[in-house]
Write a structure and sequence with these properties.
The protein has 312 residues and is α/β, with parallel strands linked by helices. It has helices spanning 3-9, 79-85, 95-104, 122-131, 144-156, 170-173, 198-204, 218-228, 256-259, and strands at residues 21-27, 30-35, 41-44, 47-50, 61-64, 71-75, 112-116, 136-141, 163-167, 184-189, 205-215, 233-239, 246-250, 290-294, 304-310. A seven-stranded mixed β-sheet has the order 9-8-7-10-11-15-12, sandwiched between helices. A four-stranded antiparallel β-sheet has the order 2-1-6-5, with helices on one face. The chain has a two-stranded antiparallel ribbon with strand order 3-4. β8 (136-141), α5 (144-156) and β9 form a beta-alpha-beta unit. Bound molecules: S-adenosylmethionine. Residues 268-312 are annotated as: Disordered.
Length: 312
């Protein structure tokens, strides 16, 4: 169950139970979603982890492996973590674009949102949390298997009551009749030809509601902007969101003084240990400085976000 539910019910500590989805966290770029099963077992390079030992422990706890002596953390799934571990059925939106979309579309509890296409449901989980508890996300995809898989995940992750998945060709048919007359507070499009859906989005959006279209190519953005240049829309803007991630870790470093006559490049030595072990009793802990540097494979261009506001 996602933290959406947790935050709605109780902000306090939550205990892991059978059937829960937990995020097994090794480090920021190595984690996976696991469904807790009685007598289930997880094996990884840190050891063997029987699920029975997880049940009753609080989310966020550290558990030590049976063989190997390493450890992992058991985190509660949030939309942000789910985006990092979900099964990819399509290209997905990541947290930088997602947070910008939620902020710029002014989503809040109670908002009614139209989304197309659902894809792998990465964005949908965050939309659901933003509009909870009284709002709703209506998400559309014309691909049957993707729509069904996403629906199952929304149910299992505890946001099913906030999301309705419908199979529909939005570029061809537009949004359903029930939304005509400004029933939606916001519309989000992640489609190959979003400009085809804009007339229908215009008739579904309330006055002053926001639309956003995500496209990887600038040619798509040009056509979308042309389609938005009609009296029904104003305040058209396009953004590209880029995030620079930093790697923070402890490192063995020697100063030139300690190195004597060695070249500075030789002074960075000894890579960090591969296996995390609990410190052995009686052994002195080594102190190492913490260094921070830009992560070498930081994500670059994902897509352009084009926003506009419904006017009369
Ligand atoms: C890139 S994926 C969306 C990913 C999603 N934003 C996420 O974060 O997981 C695009 C989706 O649009 C769907 N799609 C493409 N054309 C469509 C159409 N005409 N009507 C409805 N869905 C469509 C595809 O099946 C695909 O699942």
């Amino acid at each position: 169950m996602l933290a959406v539910e947790a935050s709605l019910r109780a902000q306090g500590e939550r205990q892991i139970k059978e059937g829960d989805v937990v995020i097994v966290y090794e480090r920021h770029d190595r984690m996976k979603a696991v469904i807790v099963a009685r007598n289930g077992e997880l094996q990884n390079r840190f050891g063997v982890f029987p699920h029975n030992e997880w049940i009753g422990k609080p989310f966020g706890c550290r558990v030590v492996g049976k063989k190997g002596g390493g450890f992992v953390f058991l985190l509660a799934p949030t939309p942000e973590l789910w985006t990092l571990v979900l099964p990819h059925r399509t290209q997905i939106l990541y947290v930088a674009d997602i947070s910008f979309v939620i902020s710029f579309l002014e989503l809040r509890p109670g908002s009614v949102m139209l989304e197309c296409g659902t894809g792998s449901g990465s964005l949908t989980h965050s939309l659901a949390r933003a509009v909870a508890p009284s709002g709703h996300v209506h998400t559309f995809d014309f691909h049957e298997q993707r729509a069904l898989a996403a629906k199952q995940e929304f149910e299992r992750n505890g946001v099913g009551h906030l999301v309705t998945v419908t199979m529909r060709d939005i570029q061809g048919q537009g949004f359903p009749e029930e939304f005509v007359g400004g029933q939606a507070d916001a519309v989000f499009l992640d489609l190959p030809q979003p400009w085809l859906a804009i007339p229908s989005a215009a008739s579904s959006l309330r006055c002053d509601g926001g639309i956003c279209s995500f496209s990887p190519c600038i040619e798509q953005v040009q056509r979308t902007c042309e389609a938005l240049t009609i009296p029904e829309f104003t305040d058209i803007r396009t953004f590209e969101v880029l995030v620079r991630t930093y790697e923070v870790r402890q490192e063995f470093l020697q100063t030139t003084l300690q190195c004597g006559t060695q070249f500075a490049s030789d002074c960075l030595f000894k890579p960090p240990p591969q296996k995390r072990q609990r410190p052995q009793k009686g052994r002195k802990r080594e102190t190492r400085p913490v260094i921070a540097k830009p992560y070498p494979d930081t994500k670059g261009h994902t897509g352009y976000l084009t926003f506009a506001r419904r006017s009369t």
